[in-house]
Each structure stands twice: as C-alpha cells, then as structure tokens.
User: What shape does this take?
Amino acid sequence: MSSKTTFKRIALVAVAALSLGVLSAAPSSATVNADTLTLSAATAAQTTAETATATSAVATVSFLGAVGDSLTVTASLVSGPAGNTALPQLTLSETSSATVSATDVASNTPVSVQAISSSAATTAKFKVYLGTSATAAPTKTGTYVVKLTPATVGSSGALQAATAQTLTITVTTAATLDTVAASATSIINAGETNTATTDAVVTSTKTVSASAAAATIKVSLLNAAGSAVTAESFTAVITGPGTLGSAAMAGAADNGSSATGRAITVRNGDVMVYVGARL
Assistant: This one.
C-alpha cells in the first residue's frame, strides 16, 4: 500500500466524523408560538346572588402549535375581604381548534387547552368569576384580586409572549338579598290568619274571647328591591281601644314570649300583629 492511498482514507474518515457531529448538534426549538393570555377587562362586578353572567370578565388563551401541544391557565386569589371563603372559578364559554380538559375549573387548578390542528390558531375563552363553588355565589362584599397564570405542558415548549394577568372583581350585595327594610305592606282581617290578601273591616265587642284575637294584621317588610325582609324588627302602635301582641303565624298565642301593650316592638320573624283583649 502506498503512503498516498493511506492519506486519502484518513481524510475520508475525518470528513464522515465531521458530518455526524454536525447532525447531532442540531438545536431543538419550541413548538408553541404566538401565544397570548388576555382579559376582556381589568375590572368586573358581581353580586352576592351571581356566579357566571353575561357581564363576567373573559380570559382568552390563544397559540399556534403542533397537534397535541398544550397551554394551561391557573386562576388564583391574591386578596379578598376578611372572612371570605369564595375563590376564582373558570367556566368555558368558547373554543376554536382546541380541546379543553374541563368546562368548570376551581381555583388553583390548571385548565389545559390542547391544539387539535397545526394549521389554525388554538383558542379558548373562559368566564372568570368568584364563588364558593361553580354554582354558589360569594357571600362577602368587597374587592377581590384574581391572578391568571399561563404555562405550557411537557414538550410543548417555552411560552413566547403570554404573561400573567390580574383581574379586580368588586362584589356588592344583591338587591334581592338586602336585609334593610325600605317599605312594608299590612293587611288586617278578622280573627287569626296569615293568609289574608285584602283588608277587611273588623268590628268587635269589648269582651273578646280570651282564646281569640279580634283581628290580625299581617305585616310584610320589603327591601328596596321589593323582596321580603325577615331580619328586622318593627314597631306597632294602636291609637284606639285594644292592645297588641305578635306571633310568627296564625293561631300561635303570644304566651308572653314577646311584648304586649299599646305600642310594641315586633321581633324578627314575627309577621302577625294581634289586636284584642286576649293580649
């Protein structure tokens, strides 16, 4: 073998080794692109009778990726009023080229949005609201701050642009749940009844039976929304002959459990004001 031939063989081996080295050093790249997490508004309003509504803030997740790539969103509570037990909830409202791991997602639980097409943007929209569950409204009024945090899953690659978003939700008392009496209705009827719907003209002798009332006044306290209020007491005064007393229902004797007289404070829950000598 000549020395010239040997040098050629060594050169070929070196070239082959160099080619293999170039192939093995090829860098990997993320498959998630153009990823975003946006909110329809930075603030939202909710009442103590509401969960998800048409006016709830909407979080939108969108990205370009290969089939199977996923992006997650986690809702968590940053702050809330003292004594609160309500937490952020997510409810799916719309998807495009996506599958979603759950339609209702509780606080601190990641919801996964997975691509089902590599030729279209993957999009999912979620209503963001507060509740002690997906269907139970918050009970404490005040200001709540909610954080939405995006992340990718497994080999989906690093996020390119999506960042955490903050939503402030102000919770107020639902008008129908207001416990402050703004008005009242009263219906008078003969005898003892809490089913009367119209007033009656009542006459009675001075010697009313000790076991029956001459008349009953059914009183209904109403809040500003016209809903019943039972958490307040009220004052009843008689200006003509007779005395007053109260009870929670028809036929229930006072038995000294509440005040009797010509001007009384009717306790919470009592809706019947009795008029007569029995009291």
